[in-house]
Amino acid sequence: MQQRHPRGSHVAPPNVTARDLFKSFAGVGLSAFGGALPFARHMLVERRRWLTEEEFTNILSLCQFLPGGNILNVSICVGSRFAGLPGAVAAFTGLLVMPVILVLLLAMLYSGYGHLEPVQAAFRGVSAAAAGLIVAMAVKMAYPLRRNPRAIVFAVLVVGAVLVWRLPLLWTLLALVPPSIAAAWLMRR
C-alpha cells in the first residue's frame, strides 16, 4: 500500500516493526515530562518521518475525539497502522513503561517530601513548562493549516465555543465534527 503525500508523490510506506515502535515510543515516554504529544510529533514527523504533518494532524484529531489520553490513542493508532495489533501493543507499552516506573518512584518521594516549599516550587515550574510545550505544539500543528480557510474557520469556532462561550468541549466537538466532515467531503469533490 502506498501513501499519498501532500506534494502528490507516491512513496512506499516505511517498514516499521513492533520493535521499532516500542523503542521509539519508549524514547518519547522517557523524555516527555510535561506532555508527550510534542515529543511524539517530533519523533513521528520530523525525526523518523513515518508520518507527514497532515497525517499526524489527522491521527491526532481522531484521537482527541476518542475517549482516553490523546497520546495513548496516538500510540495505538500509529502502532496499529504500521504493525497491526503487535505494533499497537508495542507502541502503547513502550510509551508507558518508563513513565509508570518514574511516577511510582516520584510518588514515593513526594509522599515524604511534598510538603517542602522547594518541592512545591519545582512542581509549579514543571506545570509552566508543560503549558509552554502544549502551546508550542499547537502553533506547529496550526502552521500547515494557515492556507486552509475551512480549517481556520472550524478552529476559530472551536476555540471561541470553548474559551469564550465556555461550552463543554465534548458538545462543541459533537456539534462541529459533522459539518467539518461535510465541508472536507465537499471540498474534495
Topology record:
Elements: E1 3-4, E2 10-11, H1 18-31, H2 37-47, H3 53-65, H4 70-113, H5 117-142, H6 149-164, H7 169-188
Antiparallel strand pairs: 1-2
Helix pairs in contact: 1-4, 3-4, 6-7
Shape: globular
The Rg value, from CA coordinates, equals: 19 Å
Report the count of strand segments: 2
Biggest sheet descriptor: 2 strands, antiparallel
Order of helices and strands: EEHHHHHHH
Low-confidence stretches: 1-5
| Structural class category | mainly alpha
Overall mean pLDDT: 86
Q: How many structural units, i.e. domains? A: 2
The span between the termini is 23 Å
Count of runs of 4 or more consecutive helical residues:
7
Helix content: over 70%
Beta-sheet strand percentage? under 5%
Strand line-up across the major sheet? 1-2
Comma- or semicolon-separated keywords:
single chain; 189 residues; 2 strands; globular
